[in-house]
Amino acid sequence: MKNIVIFASGAGSNAQSIIDFFRGSEEVAIALIVSNKAQAGVLKIAQTEEIDSLLIDKKVINNESFLEILSDCKTDLIVLAGFLWKIPDYLIKAYENKIVNIHPSLLPKYGGKGMYGSHVHKAVIQNKEKESGITIHLVNEEYDKGKILLQEKVAVTQDDTTDSLAQKIHKLEHLHFAKTIKTLL
Predict the structure, then answer these.
(1) Considering only Cβ atoms within 10 Å of each terminal Cβ, which end of the chain, N or C, has fewer?
(2) Domains in the chain with CATH codes
(3) 104-117 average pLDDT score
(4) d(CA 38, CA 139)
(5) Do 36 and 62 meet the contact criterion of CB atoms below 8 Å apart?
């Protein structure tokens, strides 16, 4: 059995999609959901799905003893599904090529610190881009600079708003993220 730990800061739609994809699998389990926000919807998903969860702060994630928690879960892969903090270097080294992120743009465009969610979509629209999409990539020491595993595109129309573009991007995320995760296990 391969164990996934999902890190998320928000509503958790990508986490739910991953949970649904692997539901009933005899090969893959969601061992833990980690969040940095007490009100994050992903924690409610964890409760509903009866998956262990952990609320963390900067002190917890920046302390190398956090590795013990991941070890206790027999973590094979860490999935960043809308997790808004930079992953500490010690964790990246301990799980080299075993941390995967999804980003709501076609990297390297619109990546880096502060570029997440609606901030990305707003920038894409303001710059009159003709396309946007998702990038699924491995995590390294630099924001959004790890090896790209998959990119999928969607057209940006002149009628698109931040919300309509977000909906298009979410569809791509839900369609491709779990499938790409499976290839890493």
Answers:
(1) N
(2) 2-105+136-151+176-183 (3.40.50.170)
(3) 94
(4) 24
(5) no
Backbone angles phi, psi at 171, to 5 degrees: -60, -45
* C-alpha–C-alpha distance, residues 157 and 166, integer Å: 13
* CA distances, 151 to each of 101, 132, 133 (Å): 12, 10, 7
* CA atoms of 159 and 55, how far apart (whole Å): 39
- Residue 113, pLDDT > 90, answer no
Active-site residue (options: 103, 121, 137, 176): 103
User: Whose CA is closest to 11, among 81, 77, 60, 79?
Assistant: 81
pLDDT of 122 above 90: yes
Strand partners, 99: 78
* Residue bearing tokens 């994809």: 21
Q: Is 103 a catalytic residue?
A: yes
Q: Quick one: how far is CA 162 from the chain centroid? A: 20
Give the tokens for residue 182. Answer: 């499976």
Query: Whole-model pTM above 0.90?
Result: yes
Q: Say which residues have a Cβ less than 8 Å from residue 13's Cβ, sequence separation at least 6.
A: 170, 173, 174
